[in-house]
Amino acid sequence: MSGGDGKKLVRSPSGLRMVPEHRAARSPFGLDEPPWVPDKECPRCMQCDTKFDFITRKHHCRRCGKCFCDKCCSKKVPLPRMCFVDPVRQCAECALVSQKETEFYDKQLKVLMNGATFFVTLGTSDKSELMVCRLSNNQRYLVLDGDSHYEIEIIQISTVQILTEGFTPGGGNTRAIGMILQYKVPGSEEVTQMKFTAGEDFNCNRKLSASWLAAMHKATKLLYESRDQ
Length: 229
What we know:
This protein has 229 residues and is an alpha+beta fold.
């Protein structure tokens, strides 16, 4: 894994942000700050249509950049995907999304970094290797350690399919038992596939693996959102 993961404090119109010194070192789950809707293009609240005047002030949501009155944009919520140091003002819709993402940053990200053990099969091989899989501390690499060692750059991952069991036609609980991951090898268009299968040796290991896979599923959704920005 490459170095250069230093950070710097910057001030933007939206607030203080702790960002990587180099853009290439940013988290693959991060989002750029949106451009603000210009004040002159926003005579009314974009939610309730209240007209702005000397009493009714306009505020910009830090997540979407749209313009709202204080009533429609009063919540200050953490926004780690944009590296804000403190909670920032967001509209009700964006605040709800950011609050849901907080669980990923507070809980599931730690699960991914702590890692879990899987049987890993590379490509079309019929042999699997027992490996500890974890997300690197800078969130940019999926690290696999066993007799072999792999570091897969998160931005090179093209697809992630979570494998489950326990589904019934009438509904019921499913349990994540593995995943199929495809990624591009840097410097080429070649796509490599890996299959991760949870071991069945200890019940506690199965539970840990299922939690790790659930966190990976959430991480994949955030990754796709960042790419679609």
